[in-house]
Amino acid sequence: MARIGFIGLGNMGAPMARNLVQAGHAVAVFDLSHAAMEAVPGATPAESAAAAARQTEFIFTMLPAGPQVRELLVGTGGVAAAAPADAVLVDCSTIDVATARAMSAESGRAFLDAPVSGGVMGAEAGTLTFMVGGDAAAFAAVEPLLRAMGRAAIHCGAAGAGQAAKACNNMMLAATMLVTCEAFVLAEKLGLSHQALFDVASQSSGQSWSLTTYCPVPGPVPGSPANRGYAPGFSASLMLKDLGLAVGAAREAGLELAVGEQALEVYRRFVEEGGGGVDFSGVVRMLNRSAA
Ligand code: NAD
Fold first, then answer.
1. Ligand 1 center to residue 242 CA distance, Å?
2. Which part of the chain has CATH 1.10.1040.10?
3. DSSP character at residue 235
């Protein structure tokens, strides 16, 4: 049994913390929302983030973005300072690479950036994929806990490598989704049915996860969000956030991303037109309108 602090109990954090409790660990929780803390039965609510970090071996954070995580860990939140000297800080939020590296240097504790893939369903089912940057010994220590919340945990390299992997992966996802949507729009214009395109491309070189698991048009993949009015799933606003992190990291590295930047612009327009709460595959509707 490990002694764990868990801070940030939103859509992702609450089910992750529940899985740690279910695996038999002692979990102290904190969230700005009192109601959120009640969503983790069996955990001990703490009075502050720093209080949740005291007398623990591992402190998980699952917060909206980099500024909140930094403020909480090394700013006025005082979490790193309150944590025992040999505790491991594990930030599972999706944030920018530079902030992850800065916190690794500033926290005075072992720090791992460990963003996830798999969404709310993966968090609830305990099937997340963790991509982890930071010290190898700290990763080995935390791996059994990641296994209680996910089915894969990959050590990607030094501090920031987990966030780098997340940014690259989600940029690939956005680009393959957009071009898959465009292919269905084009097929329609050319008189080719959705099902025929799916049958061909799913067995040809156009195959991708965006097509065969998450097909953006209704019909070919019954479980995809297209069949439930594009209810998320993974919202377009979260995809826009992740594309911003990828393009931002590229700019800091002096790199121009022709396709990644274009994908960012398309999702920005979709969100501006009111699509933020729609599943990211729902962008096909905007592309269809543009084609009409
Ligand atoms: P959310 O908005 O549902 O939850 C965030 C929680 O953090 C809220 O309960 C909020 O009250 C709490 N919080 C904010 N600031 C705080 C502070 N200073 N102290 C304590 N609690 C604080 O967000 P989410 O959907 O759970 O996402 C969390 C992270 O996971 C984000 O970085 C997101 O990009 C990433 N992520 C989300 C998904 C998804 O499908 N939702 C998938 C992969 C990754």
1. 14
2. 164-291
3. B
Query: d(Cα 114, Cα 157) in Å, to the nearest integer?
Result: 11
Of 1.20.81.30, 1.10.1040.10, 3.30.1360.10, 1.20.1250.20, the CATH number of 164-291 is 1.10.1040.10
Q: Of 166, 217, 230, 284, which residue is the catalytic one?
A: 166
At 189 the pLDDT is 97
**Residue partners of 95: CB distance under 8 A and separation at least 6:** 65, 66, 69, 113, 115, 163, 245
- What is the model's pTM? 0.96
> Residue with the nearest Cα to atom 4 of ligand 1?
10
In the prediction, which pLDDT does 226 show? 98
Catalytic residue flag (residue 241): no
The encoded tokens of residue 125 equal 């089912």
Nearest CA among 177, 216, 221 for reference residue 199: 221
Please name the residues in contact with 235: beta carbons below 8 A apart, sequence gap of 6 or more: 276, 277, 278, 279, 280
* Candidate from 7, 12, 166, 279 with most ligand 1 atoms within 8 A of CB, to mutate: 12
**Which of these, 153, 136, 135, lies nearest to 144 by C-alpha position?**
153
Helix (H, G, I), strand (E, B), or coil: what is residue 1?
Answer: coil
The class of domain 3-157 in CATH terms is alpha beta
Establish whether residue 94 lines the binding site of ligand 1, counting it when its CB lies within 6 angstroms of any ligand atom.
yes
- What atom of ligand 1 comes closest to residue 117's alpha carbon? 43
* Ligand 1 pocket residue status of 32, Cβ below 6 Å: yes
Segment-wise mean pLDDT, segments of 10 residues, the chain, 292 residues: 97 97 98 96 98 98 96 97 98 98 97 95 96 98 98 98 98 98 98 98 98 97 97 95 98 97 98 98 96 83
Spatial contact of 218 and 227, defined as CB atoms under 8 Å apart? yes
